[in-house]
Design a protein that fits this description.
It is built from 3 helices and 7 strands; from the N terminus they run βααβββαβββ. Strands 1-7-4-6 form a 4-stranded mixed sheet, with helices on one face. Helix 1 crosses helix 3. The relative contact order is 0.27.
Length: about 180
């Protein structure tokens, strides 16, 4: 099942901008919550509700007092291919992002799509025991990536970007539980 996620705002090119990554993560969380418990992702809710009984893969990730619920990942047996269209800058500036900067911005988008790798990547003001819906458990399940750049005409602020992320599932292993998520 193809998923399309969007984000409008600042997309940092440096890892030091934790708050911008969390702004993206919040936006993706709101979008992914709408899929939680709905076909074909209802199996994830069933696995969680069963307390991962009968061999159901324990796919969620707990970091400190935060819980991350990926739709895809190693435990689930499904990776992803991402097609990212990044609109940014102003038309009169032509390509305002250099190739290296584009690479870094794409990396920040992928950072926001996954559960943080460590507690040090958390913000200090997160509410305890919060549930975060994320696309992937970690970036090792990104098996394909296509990124394109274009001018963003929806804002006069050259630091604001608009990203369209098309997600396509790729099987890591096919099981009865994850088969419906592949098509």
């Amino acid at each position: 099942m193809e998923i399309v996620l969007t984000y409008r705002g600042k997309i940092p090119s440096k890892t030091s901008s934790k708050s911008a990554i969390w702004d993206m993560r919040r936006s993706f969380d709101l979008q992914l919550r709408k899929l939680w418990g709905k076909e074909p992702f209802d199996i994830l809710k069933q696995w969680e509700d069963s307390n991962f009984a009968a061999g159901a893969p324990e796919f969620w990730l707990r970091q400190g007092d935060q819980l991350f619920l990926p739709l895809y990942g190693n435990a689930i047996g499904v990776g992803v291919s991402l097609d990212i269209r990044l609109l940014t800058g102003m038309p009169e500036q032509k390509p305002v992002i250099s190739a290296g900067d584009l690479d870094n911005r794409i990396k920040r988008i992928i950072d926001a799509l996954q559960a943080p790798a460590q507690i040090g990547e958390h913000l200090d003001d997160l509410e305890p025991n919060q549930r975060w819906h994320c696309l992937i458990d970690n970036d090792s399940v990104v098996l394909g990536l296509n990124a394109r750049l274009g001018a963003y005409l929806g804002s006069d602020d050259p630091s604001e970007s608009f990203a369209i992320i098309v997600v396509r599932p790729i099987p890591l292993r096919v099981t009865l539980g994850n088969m419906s998520m592949l098509y």
